[in-house]
Each structure stands twice: as structure tokens, then as C-alpha cells.
């Protein structure tokens, strides 16, 4: 059996000494830091408090209101959190998890197995599981032998990394708070909610009963929503805020040159031109495939993200085992190839332009890269309009699938490849854009093949290669570039920043010099 505890973890059958847990990754610094009120500027209004909705608009609150079962170091090593140890069965068909004692939810209710079971139940529900639902497709059932133990059984043997990804993705919600979690937080995290003003921000305070010793450091955590990146930058420069979280790469470059601290974590996102293949001309595969060559990826990276990132034609970061650099060359920006595919579609000129591109008007980079695509389309004789929406109106359209095409980032691109399905456009079922039944069954089958590839290296590689071929053939999502998300730009008074594997904002270790 593969058993992981506080003292060791086993990867590939080799026992290694564990690094210090994330919870105490900066003990020396933390002892010297002062508390107070940490003021953070963000550029997006959060959608809700449900940790199973791992949308970028929620990234600043999830790890401050909740804890995961396990955490990854920035290097991807698993470490204990609400789970103190876990044992993977030799045949990889189950995992037994030991839960931490002495932890309470914000309500005061003790953290026990019942809440983990309720969280699993929610994640497996197609109507409530959100980003976790697709991840739960490998799970057969679960049980709790006692209050401190949870056993998860799988439908078939599961690769070890996929099991670890599941545990890291599982964020326990208090059982009695499941039904109201969108509007009322129900976690064990380092901060508790004080108040929220929609469109303006929210205030959190330190959890006095938090289980990690000497954390959080600050007593109050205040998020302020800025509608424009420039306004957030001005607030930092004037001293009105201490940190900008998830601002633009361009602003980060400028502020770094002005002497501000810039922290970039390992959890890059991939920008994806999302296509609703159930609407208008996008029902035509050749028309969609033309967009593989209509993306001026180098221009998008340069203009939208100040060159911070890499050009990609697949939804993977280079660290992903499915990454294949050859696709970037094969599906490069090429208007002649795009024109040939458009001609092969058989669509009339009127049909080709019968749609609008949804644009996040609150995000300068999204506006700029949408304009680049609009210009490319104009060069091949397809003039289209931009449907620019702001704030909550855009988020609602994006998450609800109310668009023909739109740019939207995807995460989990450095983890097990089928974790891609946690992103709405890539969900294999209950897809909010493409709906059920899924209009691309070959894609659904390719994901299933990846999940079932628990044999040798050749089988695993073949499953990845097949998925890559299917993605470019079906062309319902066109990746353009990786980029930095969750960038932290801070004043020189701030210290103790902890980098999180997905670049979620972790405030518990931050304090003032």
C-alpha cells in the first residue's frame, strides 16, 4: 500500500521525506511579521462562496474561507492539510483518508467524516457539483468507517497522481451548510466572513479557532473590487491598498520596475477561445477548425499579457504530461489555411458572420485579444461585432453559456490531463455551454480513455496523443497562450507571501514588516 502521512509520502514506490507543510512554510518570517488589516485590490466580483466553483473570479476567497484535504507545494509534492495521511490501495481502486482532529467549521461544528461525505455527495451531483463534478467521474462510492476516516472507492484502477489531484481538489464543506453555501460560507478556513457589498468588496476577519498555529497573522482581510486595472494600480501606488491580486501582466511589469514586489506562482492558466458549437456557423466543424489557424497567438501573448507566458495550441502548461510542443507549429497562425477550411465549410458569407463575440469589458487584456481576433476575421472576410459586457453581466453570460464565442481561461493545466474537464467548456457532461447529450462524443471517449489508461507508459502516451488529436479535430475550444494568473503585486511593507499550486490567494501567512 502507498501510505502518506506527516512524515513521508510515496511517489513511484520511493519513500521520500516530506517538506515542511504549506501551513508553516514561512515560520521564521511569520514570527517577525505584524498583524493589522490587509487591504487587497481585486479586479473581479466573486460569483459565490461555493469552493466547488473553482472559477477565477472566486480565487481570492476560496483558500481563505476553506481548507483542502491535502495541499501541493509549488513543486507539486502532496502534503497534509485536513487529511493527516492517506493510503492508496495496491490495486489503485481505493484510497483511505485519515482526517485531522481538533478542527472546527466557522459555525463551531467539529470537522468530521460526515462533512467530507456530504462534500463528496455534492461533487457527484450533476446539478450541484460544478467544477468538481467531472473529477468525480472516476469515483464509485464512499464510506466512513468512523468519524476520522473516509474511504473512497473507484470504478477502476486510477493513476496515483489522479487520486492525489482529487484529494487536493476536495474542499470540505460543512454538511449542514451544503444547501446554502453559495450565499453563506461553510468552511474551516483561516478567515470568516464579516460583510459583503456586491460590486464593491468584502471584509473577512481572522478565525480565532483556526487549527494552524500562529495563523492567520493579520486580524482583518479587506477585498476591494476595482473595475479597471489602472485604478487598482493607482490605489497601490497611493497606499490605499497593500496588494493587487490577479491584476494584469502588463501592470505587474510596470509596477515591478517601479520597485513593487511581484510574486508569480506555478499555476498558470491557458487562455482559450471558447466556442458554442451548438449555435449558428459554429455547428460546422470545418468552420470551427479554421479558428485553429485564425489565432495570432504571438500577438495575443504580446499585446494581452506583455509577453509573460507561452504560445500554445493545446490546453496544457508545459509541465503537463499531455503537453506536445509540435501542435504549436502545426496549428500556427496561417490565414491561407484558415481560408481553405472556411471554403470547405460550404457556409455562405452571411452565415459565417452571423454571430457576435462576447467580451469581458472589465478586463483590459480580454478586450485587446478579442480585438486581435476580430481583426484576423476581417482579413478573411468575416466582419463580426464585439458584445462587450461588464462585471456580473459578463460572468453570468460566461458561466451560463450565453454566447457564441468568448475568451475564457482554463486551469488545472499542469495536473492530470483529465482534470481539464473541471473547466466549464471542457466538461464531458452537464456542460453549461454545450449541454447534454454532449455534441462531441469522440471527445468524451478520449477523456474516458485517459482515465482508464492505468497500464504501461505506451498505453498512457497513446491516450494523451489521442486526446490531443481529438481536441484539434473537434475544435470547440481553441487555446492561444499560457499566462500568469493570480499575480500578486505588493508594497514593500508586506511579507510572508505563500505561493499556491493553483495560484489561489493565500492570506494566512501574510503580514507586515
Any chance you could write out the topology, listing elements then pairs?
Blueprint: E1 2-4, E2 8-11, E3 14-17, H1 27-32, E4 37-42, H2 62-65, E5 70-72, E6 78-80, E7 83-88, E8 94-99, H3 113-123, H4 130-133, E9 139-146, E10 149-154, H5 160-169, E11 191-197, E12 201-206, E13 220-225, H6 229-238, E14 243-245, H7 249-257, E15 261-263, E16 269-275, H8 285-290, H9 297-305, E17 309-311, H10 326-330, H11 335-345, H12 349-352, E18 356-360, H13 364-379, E19 385-389, H14 391-400, E20 405-410, H15 441-451, H16 457-474, E21 477-483, E22 488-490, E23 494-495, E24 511-512
Parallel strand pairs: 4-13, 4-14, 18-19, 18-20
Antiparallel strand pairs: 1-7, 2-3, 5-6, 7-8, 8-10, 9-10, 11-12, 12-13, 14-22, 15-22, 16-20, 16-21, 17-21, 23-24
Helix pairs in contact: 9-13, 15-16
Amino acid at each position: 500500500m502507498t501510505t502518506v502521512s506527516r512524515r513521508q509520502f510515496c511517489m513511484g514506490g520511493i519513500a521520500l521525506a516530506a517538506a515542511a507543510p504549506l501551513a508553516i512554510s514561512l515560520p521564521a518570517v511569520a514570527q517577525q511579521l505584524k498583524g493589522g488589516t490587509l487591504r487587497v485590490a481585486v479586479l473581479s466580483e466573486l460569483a459565490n462562496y461555493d469552493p466547488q466553483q473553482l472559477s477565477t473570479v472566486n480565487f481570492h476567497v476560496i483558500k481563505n474561507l476553506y481548507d483542502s484535504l491535502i495541499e501541493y507545494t509549488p513543486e507539486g509534492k502532496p502534503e497534509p492539510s485536513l487529511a493527516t495521511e492517506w493510503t492508496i490501495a495496491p490495486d489503485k481502486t481505493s484510497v483511505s483518508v485519515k482526517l485531522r482532529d481538533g478542527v472546527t467549521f466557522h459555525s463551531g461544528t467539529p470537522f468530521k467524516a460526515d462533512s467530507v461525505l456530504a462534500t463528496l455527495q455534492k461533487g457527484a451531483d450533476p446539478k450541484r457539483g460544478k467544477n468538481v463534478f467531472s473529477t468525480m467521474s472516476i469515483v464509485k462510492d464512499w464510506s466512513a468507517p468512523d468519524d476520522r476516516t473516509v474511504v473512497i472507492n473507484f470504478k477502476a484502477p486510477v493513476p496515483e497522481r489522479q487520486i492525489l489531484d482529487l484529494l487536493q481538489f476536495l474542499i470540505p464543506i460543512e454538511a449542514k451548510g451544503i444547501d446554502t453555501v453559495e450565499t453563506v460560507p461553510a468552511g474551516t478556513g483561516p478567515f470568516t466572513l464579516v460583510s459583503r457589498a456586491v460590486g464593491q468588496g468584502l471584509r473577512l476577519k481572522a478565525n480565532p479557532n483556526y487549527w494552524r498555529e500562529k495563523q492567520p497573522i493579520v486580524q482583518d482581510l479587506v477585498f476591494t473590487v476595482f473595475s479597471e486595472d489602472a485604478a487598482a494600480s493607482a490605489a497601490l501606488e497611493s497606499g490605499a491598498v497593500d496588494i493587487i491580486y490577479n491584476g494584469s501582466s502588463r501592470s505587474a511589469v510596470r509596477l515591478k520596475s517601479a520597485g513593487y514586489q511581484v510574486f508569480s506562482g506555478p499555476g498558470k492558466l491557458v487562455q482559450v477561445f471558447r466556442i458554442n458549437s451548438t449555435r449558428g456557423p459554429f455547428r460546422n466543424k470545418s468552420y470551427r477548425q479554421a479558428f485553429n489557424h485564425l489565432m495570432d497567438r504571438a500577438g495575443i501573448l504580446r499585446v494581452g499579457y506583455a509577453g509573460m507566458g507561452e504560445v500554445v495550441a493545446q490546453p496544457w502548461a508545459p509541465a503537463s504530461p499531455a503537453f506536445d510542443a509540435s501542435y504549436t507549429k502545426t496549428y500556427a497562425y496561417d490565414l491561407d489555411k484558415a481560408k481553405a477550411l472556411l471554403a470547405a465549410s460550404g457556409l455562405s458569407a452571411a452565415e459565417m458572420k452571423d454571430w457576435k463575440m462576447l467580451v469581458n469589458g472589465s478586463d483590459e487584456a480580454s478586450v485587446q485579444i478579442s480585438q486581435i481576433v476580430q481583426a484576423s476575421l476581417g482579413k478573411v472576410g468575416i466582419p463580426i461585432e464585439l458584445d462587450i459586457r461588464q462585471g456580473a453581466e459578463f460572468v453570468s453570460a460566461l458561466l451560463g453559456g450565453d454566447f457564441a464565442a468568448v475568451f475564457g481561461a482554463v486551469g488545472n493545466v499542469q495536473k492530470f490531463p483529465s482534470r481539464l474537464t473541471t473547466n466549464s467548456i471542457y466538461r464531458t457532461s452537464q456542460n453549461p455551454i454545450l449541454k447534454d447529450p454532449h455534441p462531441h462524443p469522440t471527445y468524451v471517449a478520449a477523456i474516458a480513455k485517459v482515465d482508464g489508461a492505468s497500464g504501461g507508459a505506451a498505453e498512457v502516451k497513446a491516450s494523451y496523443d489521442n486526446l490531443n488529436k481529438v481536441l484539434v479535430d473537434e475544435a470547440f475550444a481553441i487555446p492561444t497562450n499560457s499566462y500568469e494568473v493570480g499575480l500578486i503585486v505588493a508594497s514593500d511593507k508586506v511579507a510572508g507571501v505563500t505561493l499556491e499550486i493553483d495560484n489561489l490567494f493565500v492570506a494566512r501567512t501574510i503580514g507586515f514588516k
